[in-house]
Amino acid sequence: MDFKELIEKRQSDRRYLDKEVEDEKIRMCIQAAILSPSACNAQPWTFVVINDKDLVEKVKVIASDGGINRFAYKAPVFVAIVLERESLMAGMGMVIQDKEYRLMDVGMAAEHFCLMATELGLGTCMMGWFAEKKLKKLLNVPDKKRIPLLISIGYPDTKHREKQRKDFSQVCKYNSYK
Ligand SMILES: Cc1cc2nc3c(=O)[nH]c(=O)nc-3n(C[C@H](O)[C@H](O)[C@H](O)COP(=O)(O)O)c2cc1C
Fold first, then answer.
1. Is the CB of 126 under 6 A from ligand 1?
2. Global pTM?
3. 150 lines ligand 1 (CB under 6 A)
4. What CATH number should be reported for the domain whose range is 3-158?
């Protein structure tokens, strides 16, 4: 699969087969995320893999808290991304530039993860909506840290969907914003 095929194939998969995901594949996805760029190479992330069956059951409830992500009940594995402290340099840059580099970093790492999963025949869905406090407690993440994203992962039970995207001309301008 070339890169264009890969980015077209990746989609948010919200249905999964009842099939175990090999740990080797999860590790490959995390390795791909580790190769992601980050501001000042701070790598402000920890990936917590949830594949213990009892724990997965609890995360399903937490992921679907509020009724938004009910599909998570079908997911066999989850990966929570814990936001870590930025490096001194990145921290200074964040203050001076007033930019949240760490969230950009985590977003890119998450996409690397999902693209690798696609290449391996797996389906993923990034979730920004879940009961974060409950998840932190369950995973022993200190209360002051954040979990910006939870990713569900499994063998997809879905067909490829046509991408719904804004028109090129709506989102790309040459030489001037206007
Ligand atoms: C930061 C972020 C948070 C997201 N949160 C959720 C979520 O909580 N639940 C969900 O079903 N999808 C979530 N998504 C998936 C988006 O809905 C999805 O990427 C978008 O609709 C485009 O569809 P595609 O991923 O299939 O191309 C999230 C995606 C991102 C990048």
1. yes
2. 0.96
3. no
4. 3.40.109.10
